[in-house]
Specification:
Elements (H helix, E strand, L loop, with lengths): L8 E5 L4 H12 L3 E6 L2 H13 L6 E4 L5 H14 L5 E4 L15 H28 L4 E5 L12 H21 L6 E6 L6 H6 L15 H8 L9 E3 L2
Parallel strand pairs: 1-2, 1-4, 2-3, 4-5, 5-6, 6-7
Helix pairs in contact: 1-2, 1-7, 3-4, 4-5
Length: 237
């Protein structure tokens, strides 16, 4: 039997651990060819080993910092030359940044959060949208957070970046819906056992939280060619 993503090309950012690694493994089990992006070569290799252990094909590993925007432009050109299209984009990578009163955040810290959580995803759309349009069913999924929807004290940089990300993706989805086969959505994973969660809530017992593997099927549903949802904020819980 073929998988739901058999033969499809999928880019996953933040793929070396946590949600990104779980999504990569789940997509691989459904037959996707993976292009995995993260800052650490070693972490990517560990995920690639796990993918192949579960029967998936070897992934294409791309170690880069998402703030290297010119590298993201080159990524689109390289994927075009090698595959001529892209079927799935998962914009998962993100950073927490400082949990601080808004007026106390250092400009460099603010800019770093915006660069990774917002601008890098815009640059990915800019670079990869032409390839998604070449797919018979291009699917883009961007990871947000529940704090994008309400004013949580001391979370100013992170919440602002995710709120802006959600609006950007909704606009993008509206632009492409009627004229292309591309569908774009935002996924709020809820409370999940990740390094970012541990950074934000250091006193919390991580073993009491859902594992990233527990939400991977939601990404699969949104990546499926049969999915017709677009411009939505999909909540895992």
């Amino acid at each position: 039997m073929t998988g739901r993503l058999d033969g499809r090309i999928a880019v996953v950012t933040g793929a070396s651990r946590g949600i990104g690694a779980a999504v990569a493994k789940r997509f691989a089990r459904e037959g996707a060819h993976l292009v995995l992006i993260a800052r650490t070569q070693g972490g990517l290799e560990e995920v690639d080993d796990a993918v192949r252990t579960e029967g998936g094909s070897a992934a294409t590993l791309v170690p880069l910092d998402l703030r290297d925007f010119e590298a993201l432009d080159r990524l689109g050109a390289a994927l075009h030359e090698r595959h001529g299209k892209l079927d799935v984009l998962v914009g998962n990578a993100g950073i927490l940044g400082p949990l601080s009163p808004v007026g106390h955040i250092e400009p460099d810290s603010w800019q770093q959060v915006m660069d990774v959580n917002l601008t890098a995803n815009w640059r990915l759309i800019r670079s990869l949208d032409p390839l998604l349009r070449q797919s018979d069913a291009g699917r883009a999924i961007f990871v947000s957070s529940g704090v994008a929807g309400f004013a949580k004290p001391y979370w100013g940089a992170y919440a602002a970046s995710k709120a802006a990300l959600e609006m950007m993706v909704k606009v993008y989805a509206a632009e492409v819906e009627r004229i292309t086969p591309v569908r774009a959505n935002i996924l709020d994973p809820g409370v999940v056992r990740t390094a970012m969660r541990a950074e934000a809530f250091p006193g919390e017992d991580p073993m009491s939280l859902p594992h990233p593997d527990d939400i991977a099927d939601i990404f699969l549903d949104l990546a499926d060619p049969a999915c017709t949802r677009t411009g939505e904020v999909v909540r895992a819980s």
